[in-house]
Amino acid sequence: MIRVLVADDEPMVRQGVRAVLASASDISVVAEAEDGHQAVALTQRHRPDVAILDIRMPRMDGLRAAAEIRRTVPDTSVVMLTTFGEDDYILQALGDGAVGFLVKSGEPEELVIGIRAVADGAAYLSPKVAARVVAHLTTGAGAAAGRRSAAGRQVAALTPRERQVLALLGAGLTNGQIARRLRVVEGTVKGHVSSILSRLAVDNRAAAAVVAHEAGLVPPPERPGHGPRGERGE
Question: What predicted TM-score, i.e. pTM, was given to this entire model?
Answer without folding.
Answer: 0.69
